[in-house]
Amino acid sequence: MTWLTIIIAGIITYFMRMTMVALVDRDLLGEKVKAVLAYVPSAVFPAIIFPGIFINDYGTFIEMNDPKIFGAIIAILVGYFSKNVIATIISGLFSYWIIIFLL
Amino acid sequence: MLSKKQIFSKGILAVAPHMFSVIPFGIVCGAIGIELGFSPILVYAMSIIIFGGASQIVFLQLLSGGASALIAVTSVGVINSRHLLYGAVLSEYLEKLSFIKKLLISYLVVDQGFAESNKFFQKNRNETHLHYHLLGSGGTLWVCWQISTLAGIILGSFVPEELGLKFAVPLTFIAIVVQDIKKLDHVIVMITCGLSSLLFFDAPFKSYIIISPIIALFVAALVLRLKK
Fold first, then answer.
1. Is B82 within 8 Å of chain A by CB?
2. pLDDT of residue B194
3. Mutation site for B-interface testing, chosen from A15, A80, A85 by largest number of B Cβ within 10 Å
4. Distance in angstroms (rounded) separating the CA atoms of residues A88 and A86
5. ipTM entry
């Protein structure tokens, strides 16, 4: 039973990935829709970023002095100026670790 | 004009830094499945059949918590529905591929791979072998996801929880969008999405993950109208 459930979940997930690439003719999308689609990364990823920072493991809001907020600010600054993905992630993690382990 | 091999390598290099979040997440995903009492083969099979980090964890947690199969499947569908948006964006660059190739390459579309390959596509529209970038990025993420979930299944969650490596997940996505914060229209869209995700965090089936992008895209459409 669990196997069947996994296979159905897998098929649904695959269809989400495949439908727009293989089944839908892009010409069906109007110019306005295409222009809006340029915002997809900015419209999707904050839904992963914000809860990852502001909501803790128990589903409640963190305090304003939580080290994750500091880590995220450092990562944004380093990322913006360095334009380097590794530097962004490492600087965010290290500043977070410095607060939780040293202070 | 870049060769297939060059573009493929660029795809691999583009997602390599994201392994800081993918590998610990994969280990946790494998380990949680075993801790919740599922068989190792079943937990691993999910990494091949579903291949979607957050949705795999939610799926196992729901089933072990006694939720019905329908609820578990619905949650996976809702969480992964954002891939419809990724597909819509990528279709422009994958148009010329044969139907079979489109079917195959779709399997490899995941968050970080989509994000990095889409950036490459925007800057290199005229290259002929564009899809090799997606093969490189998606293929790398696939291989690392398989190895790390297997490691978590076999070794348990050997990454100390005190390190808080879960925090690498938001950081990896900050790295993806941070260059767009110089554009006011993008900032408006990002903040709309972020605040919506906090507001709708408790909505059923983890639907905040698709509700917030939809709201943000409506705002994007409004912003586009105002810009004209």
1. yes
2. 98
3. A85
4. 5
5. 0.95
